[in-house]
Amino acid sequence: MATTHTKSAARAMMAPSVIALLIWMAVPLAMTLYYSTLGYSLYNPISTPFVGFDNYSYFLSDPTFSAALVNTLILVVGVLCITVGGGILVALLLDQDFYGVNVVRLLVIAPFFVMPTVAALVWKNMMMNPVYGVIGQFLSSIGLQPIDWMTEVPLLSIIIIVAWQWLPFATLILLTALQSLSSDQKEAAEMDGAGALSIFWYITLPHMSRAITVVILIQTIFLLSIFAEILVTTNGGPGSQSTNLTYLVYQQAISFGDVGAASAGGIVAVILANIVAIFLVRLIGKNLDA
């Protein structure tokens, strides 16, 4: 049983890490809050008048903000649908015993270790290019008109690229959960006359519910801040068709030189991300306690 002395020693050993973590989080947030109240432009950094909440009003009233917010939600929901649905199917496939299953599992997980910028460039130039891309060549070979993905369906293109990167993560988590399912339950259901679909719906899927919850929570946190894939493929365009909140903040700071508005946008993005996180934890986090 831990004594008062050992508890004090444990707190003392943890204190440096906790303090460093707080500083690492609190200082950037405080600086962002500070700059969000200033009229700070990169084109005139000497003049930084206090403007109060004007930057927030400007950012929230920008027509691009509503488009970016909708694009962010579509991006998150679209990627989650593909990765969770596809992850379940791939996990069920990899749970089977066939020749070379270990090699296939390694190949399926490999895309998760590809850097986002590299993955986006590969998809943009080698897969989705309408002239010499693999998809364009295939469509031309069967007599169909190639699609200019980055111009005609830019947001869908980003969803496909990001989903390809995150599908291995979902598959790995779901496969781990699937392998912990006792075969006795399936055998008993089969003896009672249950079909494959019934076994999946009433036994396998409920068993994977916790893993699905973990996948959704973790991926949502990261998907709200997708940036590199947009930067190297569509640059948020055409217009603002593929601009999300993260890229909009980048545009305000780098393209327009408005650090004050970008800081206000960053605070707005943090608030919205926390709202989404709290909503998800309340809505589906109960599965973790079940």
From TrEMBL:
Pfam families according to UniProt: BPD_transp_1
UniProt keywords (A-Z) are: Cell membrane, Membrane, Transmembrane, Transmembrane helix, Transport
- Where is it chiefly localized? membrane
List the record's Gene Ontology CC terms alphabetically.
plasma membrane
Concerning InterPro entries, the annotation shows: MetI-like, MetI-like_sf
According to the entry, every stretch annotated as the ABC transmembrane type-1 domain falls at 69-280
Q: Transmembrane segments in this chain: where?
A: 12-35, 68-94, 106-123, 155-178, 211-233, 253-281
Lyase is among the record's keywords:
no
Biological process terms in GO annotation: transmembrane transport
Compartment(s) where it occurs, according to its Swiss-Prot or TrEMBL record:
Cell membrane
Specify the protein's topology with respect to the membrane: Multi-pass membrane protein
Q: Which family does it belong to?
A: Belongs to the binding-protein-dependent transport system permease family.
Q: In its UniProt entry, what is this protein called?
A: Sorbitol ABC transporter membrane protein /mannitol ABC transporter membrane protein
The species is Fulvimarina manganoxydans
